[in-house]
Each structure stands twice: as structure tokens, then as C-alpha cells.
Amino acid sequence: MHQPTTTDAIPVVGPIVDIAWLQAQLGKPGLRVVDARSLAHYQMGHIPGAISLDASAIRMSNSTPTGVAAFLDQARAELRRAGVRPGDRVVFYEDFSGAAAARGVWMLDALGHPGSAMLDGGLRAWVDAGEPITRQPANVEVSDLEVALDPTVVATADEIRDALGVDDRPTVIDTRNDLEFRAGTIPGATHVEWLEHLRPDGTFRPLAELGALYDAIGIGASHEKPVVTFCGSGYRAAHTYVVLRALGVPAVKNYAPSWGEWGRRRDLPVEIPRGRQPSAVSGQRSADG
User: Among candidates 112, 116, 113, 53, which has minimal Cα distance to 90?
Assistant: First the structure.
């Protein structure tokens, strides 16, 4: 018989939660709210009880076994420092529905700790809803969390390269901006910039609109091929990963080192999109990945 745990009272509603959901769940045992911004921004004001974990500082520099192992070691250390425990349900946020919070969701999936989510609208929406913020840091007890890579959500350069010539190759989505895409991309990639997911106020567009966006390129809940997302260093790609998960797409991977690795390796092919010219941003990573 199933034994109740501290997180049983916290509903699983997918990788994106709204302000009303967090209002109802805040303070329950087993819920861990993580501020994914820099420590300096956290210290200026954050959601009460939130812990600080700068998601932009945990990167996977390359997808070799050594690079993946280094990522696992760093992520484990940071999550333990932040007090994330086995079974905790984690909600990440930043100022808006941004890529750092999405990266946190993908990171926990990749580390074998599923069930996390990001807060739609982030801190801005929390404040707009009349909720308080504080400068008081949360009390944190260091945890003994163990992690193990889930390869079903982590793409590597070698597996993408090896699949380029096969009939059932993954669908690759380039989530970078148009200039970056025009400078060169993974052969066969489809371009959908991650900002297409957001309203002007920094919240997500309705799922129906997001579904239509991806239905237009043949990606939906019935999509049979794996989908691989990439950007400059895996953050914007994580945003697309979260959206596709929310839409029910069954098999999605984030190529976390992204163009920061692919663009530097001479053994990997680069495609200049038809009718477009390369520009000075070729191989350049943007600040938010």
C-alpha cells in the first residue's frame, strides 16, 4: 500500500504553475521554492521562504562523459547547499517566465528528480498579485541529495551528429534569435525563437496558442520522433523543453552545451539556412544561453 509522503498533498499539475497554485501550496512541507536569479537580486527581495540558487551558474560546457560528470557534480553540490531533499517538489522563479527558471526544471529532470515546475510570470506576477516579498534569507539545512543522469532528457553532440543521416532522426529546434540562426545551425534544424512563447508582460501565452505554434511545424502530443532543443548554452532551449512538456510532447531532450559546443567542434557539420548569409555572430553565445 502507498505510504503518504510530505509531497502527497501537493498536486502535480505540469511544469508550469501560476500564482494561484503557489498561493495555495506555499508553506506546505515538501515544497521548495527556488529563486533562480543571482544572489544580488535575491537579496534585494524575494518570495518569503524562497532559497537562492543561481541557475545561470550551473552549466554543462560539453556533452562528453567528462563534461556531463562535471555538470552532475556541480549540480549535486548546489542543490544540496540549497537544501533540496529527495521527494521535494521544487518551483523555480525569476523576474518573469524566463530561461533561468526553465533551466532549473530541466536540470532536475536531468538529475532524476522529476516533478518540478516554474512560476508563470515570476516575481513580477507575484508582486502584481499583491503578495509580499522579503529580504530575509530562508533558513536552509544542507541536504544529502543524490542524483543520477536521466539520459531520456539529455542530448549529446555525438548522438545528434550520428542521427543526422537516418530516416527517423530527431526533430531539432533552434531556439536562438534570427541573427544567430542565420549565422549557422545544426543541419535540418527548425527555427522557433523561445520568445515566441511569451506575452509582452513576460507571462506565457495560453497553452492553446503555444500548441498552435508547434502544430504548425508538426510537433504535438502525437509527435512520434524525439525532439531536441538547443540554443547557445541550454537555457533558452530549456524554455522550449518546458513548453513542449507542458503541451504533452512525449519525448523531449535539451542539448545543454548547445552551440557553445557544436559551434566550436570542427568535426560537427554546420548548415547556413537557405537564402541567408552568415554574420559576425556565428558561434557566439548570448548572455542568457
Answer: 116
Residues in the chain: 289
pTM here? 0.91
Confidence of residue 276 (pLDDT cuts 50, 70, 90): low
Task: Tell me which residue of 183, 188, 150, 152 sits closest to 171, measured CA to CA.
Answer: 188
The answer to whether 175 and 192 are in contact (CB under 8 A) is yes
CA 93/CA 49 separation, integer angstroms:
13
Nearest in space to 184 (alpha carbons), one of 108, 248, 280, 77: 280
Contact indicator for 188, 164 with CB cutoff of 8 Å: yes
- What is the grid cell recorded at 257? 552545451
Residue 184 sits at φ, ψ, to 5 deg, of 150, 145
Q: Residue 166: its pLDDT value, please?
A: 84
The full 3-state SS of the chain, as one line of letters, equals CCCCCCCCCCCCCCCEECHHHHHHHCCCCCEEEEECCCHHHHHHCECCCCEECCHHHCCCCCCCHHHHHHHHHHHHHHHHHCCCCCCCEEEEECCCCCHHHHHHHHHHHHCCCCCCEEECCHHHHHHHCCCCCECCCCCCCCCCCCCCCCHHHECCHHHHHHHCCCCCCCEEEECCCHHHHHHCECCCCEECCHHHHECCCCCECCHHHHHHHHHCCCCCCCCCCCEEEECCCCHHHHHHHHHHHHCCCCCEEECCCHHHHHCCCCCCCCECCCCCCCCCCCCCCCCCC
Give me the amino acid identity at 168.
D
Choice between 113 and 1, residue whose per-residue pLDDT is larger: 113
